[in-house]
Write a structure and sequence with these properties.
- By secondary structure, the chain is an alpha/beta fold.
- The protein has two domains: 218 residues, Rossmann fold (3-Layer(aba) Sandwich); 166 residues, Glycogen Phosphorylase B (Rossmann fold), CATH 3.40.50.2000.
- It is built from 17 helices and twelve strands.
- The strands form two sheets. A six-stranded parallel β-sheet has the order 2-1-3-4-5-6, sandwiched between helices. A six-stranded parallel β-sheet has the order 9-8-7-10-11-12, sandwiched between helices.
- α14 links the parallel β11 and β12.
- α1 packs across α17 and α2 crosses α3.
- It is elongated and about 70 Å long.
Length: 408
């Protein structure tokens, strides 16, 4: 089977590391072509996927030439597919959707020339707009995975849900958000993002306590509460380092807070850490625990189910997280420690419990790993996707195969 995966930028950009395992697992079984909507510079995640990608700038010369040829070859289909734009709902959304139309026509040509059987896209915003239009033009069935911020954006969600062969939410909380925005419940499939679970792991709390927070430095991640929790731990005499792995708009502000609390010697800002390097730290027992201090900013701006927690748990590393968004679906009393959001004392208490009780930390980590094996192993997730793609492919809709492919 030939599957096109449409991403926002992967493997040309610093985001979307969380879908690398899913794509690699499908690549082991099928031909997969990755097409980023807005490619940037390569990496640092999924560099091995570059040979399996086709990338062009959103308005590059090649895109514009292909779009012109496709518009001339199939004017009726192009006009019909672009009719969705009129339902964008706001001038801002209309402009953003219109901007991806040339890339959508280019994608339609790529799907035709490559003889794709199915197109799947991540993100329900303009990435899905681009895929929807491409599918309408070339006749290849499509599906999409919605995450969180793209659901909040509500860009033609009901139209996309009605047109796609599958709308996948990665959590029950995501499904709830989609339903609140008018998507019918029976149109939504809940299927978590999967991770590659190591065959064996032997987590042992390291002698040098290091707690890792793998999260971009954004408001929703609540780093300031974690930094205040670290001051509480230091005042209690707990000697440990906090590593912040991620980049973002709040870096300068958080560094100033760290300095003002006298914590610059024990809190390290690592910047963006390549995905493989992060997993290597887990495998080598460098990290004592993984923590996320996420908060709810209102208006649906909160965590989905962070793959950063899933990956840590798959290595048997104990986790601490807050009761926001979809996190309680993943971290339960038996599989990790949950604390209220915006509560530095509760964060400090949970982290201290793990650092001072290594046997308990190891027991909790083992329980978390078993939970991931049961529910989020990428092999199982990819098998589910594979079955769905196969049942909604050009092979199952032979009339669509009769569309003449456009070369150019």
């Amino acid at each position: 089977m030939r599957i096109i995966y449409v991403t926002a930028c992967l493997p040309f950009g610093s985001a979307e590391a969380f879908i690398v395992d899913e794509i690699n697992e499908l690549l082991r079984r099928h031909e997969v072509l990755i097409v980023p909507r807005s490619p940037k510079r390569p990496g640092p995640h999924g560099l091995e996927l570059i040979p399996n990608s086709r990338h062009e700038g959103i308005l590059s010369a090649r895109v514009m030439v292909s779009a012109t040829r496709m518009a001339m070859a199939r004017p009726g289909r192009v006009a019909k597919s672009c009719g969705y734009l009129a339902r964008s709902g706001s001038a801002g959304k209309l402009v953003r959707n219109a901007a991806v139309v040339p890339k959508a026509l280019w994608l339609a040509q790529i799907a035709s020339e490559w003889a794709a059987d199915h197109i799947h896209c991540h993100w329900a915003g303009t990435t899905a707009t681009m895929t929807l239009i491409a599918s309408e033009i070339c006749g290849v069935p499509w599906s999409l995975t919605a995450h969180r911020s793209d659901i909040v954006g509500n860009n033609l969600l009901t139209e996309k849900a009605a047109n796609a062969s599958m709308l996948r939410a990665i959590s029950r909380d995501g499904k709830r958000m989609l339903v609140e925005r008018g998507v019918k419940s029976d149109c939504i499939t809940v299927l978590p993002i999967g991770v590659s679970v190591p065959e064996r792991c032997d987590f042992t709390p390291p002698k040098k306590p290091i707690v890792l927070c793998p999260a971009d430095l954004l408001a929703v991640k609540g780093h300031q509460y974690l930094i205040h929790a670290w001051r509480i731990l230091r005042d209690r005499g707990i000697v440990a380092e906090l590593w912040l792995a991620g980049q973002g708009e709040l870096r300068s502000e958080l560094q100033r807070l760290t300095d003002s609390l006298g914590l610059s010697a024990v809190i390290k800002f690592l910047g963006t850490v390549p995905h493989a390097e992060l997993l290597e730290q887990y495998a080598k027992n460098v990290v004592s625990a993984v923590v996320l201090a996420s908060i709810d900013l209102g208006g649906g701006c909160h965590e989905g189910i962070p793959v950063s927690l899933v990956e840590a748990m798959s290595y048997g590393i104990p986790v601490v997280a807050t009761e926001t968004g979809g996190i309680p679906e993943l971290v339960r009393p038996q599989t990790g420690l949950l604390v209220p959001p915006c509560a530095p004392i509760a964060l400090a208490d949970a982290i201290q419990k793990l650092l001072l009780a290594p046997d308990f930390a190891k027991q909790l980590g083992c329980a978390g790993r078993r939970h991931i094996l049961r529910t989020r192993d990428v092999v199982t997730v990819a098998s589910t996707l594979e079955s769905f793609f196969r049942s909604h492919s050009t092979a199952q809709t032979p009339s669509r195969k009769q569309i003449k492919y456009v070369k150019g």
